[in-house]
Write a structure and sequence with these properties.
The complex is a heterodimer of chains A (about 400) and B (about 240).
Chain A: E1 4-9, H1 12-20, E2 29-35, E3 38-44, H2 46-50, H3 59-65, E4 70-73, H4 78-90, E5 96-99, E6 106-110, H5 121-135, E7 139-144, H6 147-156, H7 168-173, H8 184-192, H9 206-225, E8 241-251, H10 254-275, E9 277-288, E10 293-304, H11 307-315, E11 327-339, H12 357-372, E12 380-384, E13 390-395
Helix pairs in contact in A: 6-9, 10-11, 11-12
Chain B: H1 2-18, E1 51-55, H2 59-76, E2 82-87, E3 107-111, H3 115-126, E4 131-138, H4 143-156, E5 159-164, E6 177-184, E7 199-207, E8 213-220, E9 223-226, H5 235-241
Parallel strand pairs in B: 1-5, 1-6, 2-3, 2-4, 4-5
Antiparallel strand pairs in B: 6-7, 7-8, 8-9
Helix pairs in contact in B: 3-4
The chains are: A alpha+beta (about 400), B alpha/beta (about 240).
C-alpha cells in the first residue's frame, strides 16, 4: 500500500519574507502583484489578517483598512521556486518529492517504506514539522493512502493528520467539498445545492454526479478515494540504477577517466544483467574540485548491458569532458532501462538483418559520434520502411 | 610432373591467402551472377570481404555505378542481411533500388555532412559483422585511409564498395578491384519500340592477382546478362540507326 504525505505551507511567501527580514514581525505586510492595471494582494501576513485584509483585495483598499501596511512586490514564479527549494530539502525524507501543482502552496511526498526509519508515522510527521518550524515555516501535514486524501486532510482536516490504511473515505466525510481540489464553477454549484460536506454526496450514484458535475469532479473524488490513479511528477526522477566512484586524487587524464568509466560500467552492467535489464540512456556526471559538474550522455537503440559496447559509446564522448583542475567524483546514472531479450547462442553464422546486434551497436556508435557535432549539422539516419514510406530511425 | 603442378597450385593458393583472399566456406561460394567477369578474379570467384573501388567522374557515371552496385547488393543481401549506404552527398533515390531487386528497407542510409565523419562511419560499418555490404560515396580516398578500410574488412568479412569522385588527384589505393562503370544506350529486342534493358560498359581497370578487362553487361530479367560483342551496338551505330 502506498502512503502519501501532503505538506501545506499556509503562509509560504510571508514566512519566507520573515526569515529574510525578521524586523517585519510586528508590522502587517502584504504581497501584491499588478493585474489589469491595479495592484492585487496575493499573500497576507498574520498581522495583516487581523486587520481584515484578504487575498485578492486591491492593495489600495487594504491600505485603507490597515494603516501602516507594508506592500511588497510579488514576482511571478517565486512561490514555485521556493517550493522547489523546500522540495529538494525534503528529499532527505523520501526520494519521491513533488510540488503540489493544484494551488502551488505545498509539497507531496510518497513515503511508502520511509516512515519506519524515523520510528513510525507520528514521529516522522513531528520531525518534518518541527524541522520546518525551526527554519521559520509553518506547515500543516497529513498522511494518507492517496495524495488526494492527504491534500484534503492537510488543508481542511480538524481531527487527526494521520489517516490509517484504507480509511480515507471516512476521513473525507466531514470535510467540505473544497477539500477535493475542484474547480470554482463546480464548487459554486455544490454550494448552491446545499452540499456543504462530502458525506452529503459521496454515496450518490456516479451517473448522477457525472451528469451534474462532469468527469473532472468524479476524477478528483476518485483520486481522493484511491479508485483513480493520480500521476505525480517528482522533482527529481528516481534513478533506478546509479553508481558513484570517488577518486583519491583529482583526475585529469583521459586514461584515468576511461578507467573510472570502465569500473562504473562493470558494476552497473553486472547489476543490470542480474535483473535482465539493459541500458537505453545513461548519463555520466563528473564533479570537479572547483564545484562545477561536467555531464555526458549516451543512448542506445536497443537495451544493452554489455560493458564493452557501452564503454565504446562513452569513449566517443570523453573528449567533451573538461576536467579543469581535476575530477573528484564520477556518478553514472542509468536513466532509462528496458528488458533485454536474451539471445540464444547460434551454432552457425546467420545474417539476421537489421535486428542484428552488431548492426544496432553500429547505429548506437554512429548516433553518439555524429550527435557530438553541433546541432547545425544536418544529419539524418533514415530507415526506409516497408511499403516504401520513409521512417525516421534517428534524427540528430 | 604431377607433383610439381600440385606444388605450384599450392603456392598460388598460399599467395592468394597472403594477399587477403580467403577461401569462402563451401556454402557461400555462390556466384554473384556476373558471368564471365567473375573469371577475371583470382580463383574465378567474385571476392567478398574486400574493398571494391568504383570511379565516377561525372553524374551519369555515378548513376551507372549505383545501378550496378544495386544489382550486386541484390545478391549479397539475399539472405535477409542488412547493408549500409554512407554518403555525404547522396543522389540515389532509395525506392529506385527496387528496380535492381535490392530491398531498400534493409539498407541503412546514413547521410552526414562532413567527409571526415563519413569515413569514420565507413570504417565502423566495415567492422560490423552483421552487415552484408557497405556502400560509401566519398570524394577522396588516400592510401592510408584505404589501408584502414582494408584492415577493417579483413577482420569482419564485409564487402565494401567505395565510390570515388575525384578525377584530379586519383591516388592509388589498396582496393582489390578498381571498376569503372559507364552507361551505354540500351537496345530493344528485335527493333521493338521503347527502351531496352539498362546497359553498362563495365571496365575492370585493376584487379589484384587477376585479369583486368572490359565487358558489356545489362540488367535483364532481374539478373546480370552479358552482351556478346557481335550483338553489341556502339554509340555511333545507335546514332546512325536512330
Amino acid at each position: 500500500m502506498k502512503r502519501y504525505v501532503c505538506i501545506w505551507f499556509r503562509q509560504l511567501l510571508c514566512d519566507w519574507q520573515l526569515i529574510r527580514r525578521p524586523e517585519l514581525k510586528e508590522i502587517p505586510f502584504v504581497f501584491a502583484a499588478p493585474d489589469h492595471g491595479r495592484m492585487l494582494v496575493t499573500a497576507v501576513s498574520e498581522q495583516a489578517l487581523n486587520f481584515g485584509v484578504e487575498m485578492g483585495m486591491r492593495a489600495a483598499d487594504a491600505k485603507a483598512i490597515c494603516p501602516g501596511l507594508e506592500v511588497l512586490d510579488d514576482k511571478a514564479g517565486r512561490a514555485e521556486k521556493l517550493l522547489k527549494g523546500l522540495g529538494e530539502w525534503c528529499i532527505r525524507y523520501s526520494p519521491f518529492v513533488a510540488v503540489d501543482s493544484f494551488l502551488m502552496d505545498g509539497l507531496i511526498l510518497e513515503i511508502s517504506g520511509c516512515a519506519h526509519l524515523w520510528g513510525g508515522e507520528r514521529e516522522y510527521l513531528k520531525e518534518i514539522v518541527s524541522k520546518l518550524k525551526s527554519k521559520g515555516y509553518t506547515a500543516r501535514m497529513a498522511i494518507a493512502d492517496t495524495a488526494g486524501a492527504a491534500w484534503a486532510v492537510s488543508h481542511y482536516g480538524k481531527i487527526t493528520p494521520i489517516i490509517p490504511n484504507s480509511a480515507q473515505a471516512e476521513a473525507l466525510l466531514s470535510l467540505p467539498p473544497e477539500a477535493l481540489r475542484l474547480e470554482e464553477v463546480t464548487l459554486a454549484k455544490l454550494r448552491k445545492l446545499g452540499f456543504y460536506q462530502i458525506k452529503s454526496f459521496i454515496n450518490m450514484p456516479r451517473s448522477v454526479l457525472r451528469r451534474r458535475f462532469g468527469d473532472d469532479f468524479l476524477l478528483r473524488l476518485g483520486q481522493a478515494l484511491g479508485t483513480e490513479t493520480e500521476l505525480i511528477t517528482p522533482l527529481q526522477q528516481v534513478v533506478p540504477f546509479t553508481e558513484r566512484l570517488f577518486c583519491m586524487e583529482p583526475i585529469r587524464t583521459r586514461t584515468a577517466i576511461e578507467l573510472a568509466i570502465q569500473r562504473l560500467l562493470d558494476i552497473l552492467c553486472a547489476q543490470l544483467a542480474k535483473e535482465g535489464k539493459g541500458l537505453r540512456s545513461g548519463t555520466l556526471n563528473c564533479f570537479r574540485i572547483d564545484g562545477k559538474a561536467q555531464q555526458v550522455s549516451i543512448g542506445t537503440n536497443a537495451a544493452s548491458h554489455s560493458a564493452g559496447h557501452l564503454f565504446k559509446l562513452f569513449e566517443l564522448k570523453i573528449e567533451q569532458i573538461r576536467p579543469g583542475l581535476g575530477i573528484e567524483m564520477f556518478v553514472l546514472d542509468i536513466g532509462k532501462v528496458d528488458d533485454v531479450a536474451i539471445d540464444q547462442e547460434a551454432l552457425w553464422e546467420s545474417r539476421p538483418g537489421l535486428n542484428d546486434k552488431s548492426v544496432i551497436r553500429l547505429l548506437d556508435r554512429v548516433a553518439g559520434k555524429v550527435a557530438q557535432r553541433s546541432s547545425s549539422v544536418i544529419c539524418l539516419l533514415r530507415l526506409i520502411g516497408r511499403k516504401g514510406q520513409q521512417g525516421l530511425l534517428a534524427l540528430f | 610432373m604431377e607433383a610439381k603442378r600440385e606444388l605450384i597450385e599450392k603456392l598460388q593458393q598460399d599467395i592468394l591467402l597472403w594477399q587477403g583472399f580467403k577461401a569462402l566456406p563451401s556454402g557461400h561460394s555462390k556466384s554473384v551472377g556476373l558471368g564471365s567477369i567473375e573469371k577475371a578474379f583470382p580463383g574465378g570467384v567474385f571476392p567478398r570481404g574486400v574493398i571494391h573501388e568504383f570511379l565516377n567522374f561525372s553524374p551519369e557515371h555515378s548513376a551507372a555505378s549505383d545501378g550496378f552496385i544495386a544489382g550486386l547488393l541484390s545478391v549479397l543481401m539475399n539472405e535477409g542481411a542488412a547493408c549500409a549506404w554512407i554518403s555525404s552527398c547522396r543522389k540515389v533515390y532509395p525506392a529506385s533500388l527496387k528496380a535492381f531487386n535490392a530491398d531498400p528497407e534493409r539498407i541503412i542510409f546514413m547521410d552526414v555532412e562532413l567527409e571526415k565523419d563519413a569515413l569514420w562511419i565507413v570504417e565502423e560499418a566495415l567492422k560490423t559483422e552483421g552487415l552484408a555490404a557497405v556502400v560509401a560515396e566519398v570524394s577522396t580516398l588516400s592510401l592510408v585511409e584505404s589501408r584502414r578500410l582494408q584492415l577493417a574488412v579483413e577482420k569482419s568479412g564485409v564487402t565494401g564498395f567505395i565510390l570515388r569522385r575525384d578525377a584530379k588527384g586519383l591516388s592509388s589505393t589498396i582496393a582489390t578491384a578498381r571498376w569503372r562503370i559507364t552507361p551505354l544506350p540500351s537496345e530493344t529486342e528485335d527493333g521493338l519500340p521503347g527502351l531496352g534493358f539498362p546497359r553498362w560498359n563495365v571496365e575492370l581497370l585493376k584487379v589484384r592477382s587477376g585479369m583486368p578487362g572490359s565487358w558489356t553487361m545489362e540488367w535483364a530479367a532481374d539478373q546480370f546478362a552479358e552482351v556478346k560483342p557481335q550483338q553489341k551496338m556502339t554509340a555511333i551505330d545507335y546514332r546512325r540507326s536512330g
